[in-house]
UniProtKB/TrEMBL annotation:
Signal peptide: none annotated. Residues 32-141 form the HTH-type transcriptional regulator MT1864/Rv1816-like C-terminal domain. This is TetR-like C-terminal domain-containing protein. It comes from Paraburkholderia dipogonis. Pfam families: TetR_C_33 (PF13305). Keywords: Transcription, Transcription regulation.
Length: 160
């Protein structure tokens, strides 16, 4: 199960990277990464659930540990531009500041929540009741476009 989850994390990272390929750092890239997360989740709902079932997985298994780091680094693009991360962050997703951890949690919850709402069919009725929205998938796409995903504030710098 751990090897399967590891494969899922690598595939999730590839989906996010594919969506963001060729898009400059900034809002458009962050939204593309979010789309990659959601599209992977919708295409692989059972695998996504397994990847989140810690009680079924061996967290110490090297392949799973490494694959989780790969997907976390890919997802980190939602929260910060690559230039904002240190070499330590890029190599192991090492220590983070409180601001980075908060931004990462908010962003991860956002994309994971959208994915689960779509997978579970929880948006179907809302989408059907909204003028100009054709499907739950369109509603999620509009939600990704609507939200401004703000990167984590670099250490020692204020937002401008």
């Amino acid at each position: 199960m751990s090897e399967l989850a590891a494969s899922g994390h690598r595939r999730l990272a590839a989906s996010m990277a594919e969506q963001a390929d060729g898009i400059e750092a900034g809002q458009a890239r962050r939204k593309a990464i979010a789309r990659g997360y959601v599209s992977f989740a919708v295409a692989n709902p059972d695998l996504l659930h397994l990847m989140s079932r810690n009680e079924m997985l061996d967290a110490a298994r090297p392949a799973l540990t490494q694959a989780r780091q790969v997907s976390a680094r890919a997802l980190a693009g939602v929260f910060s531009a690559p230039a904002e991360r240190t070499e330590e962050d890029r190599s192991s997703f090492g220590r983070t500041t409180a601001a980075q951890a908060i931004a990462m949690t908010a962003g991860w919850a956002y994309v994971h929540g959208l994915a689960l709402l779509l997978i579970d069919g929880r948006l179907n009725a809302l989408a059907a009741s909204a003028d100009g929205i054709r499907s739950a998938e369109d509603l999620v796409e509009a939600a990704i476009e609507h939200v401004q995903i703000v990167p984590a504030e670099p250490a020692g710098k204020g937002r401008k």
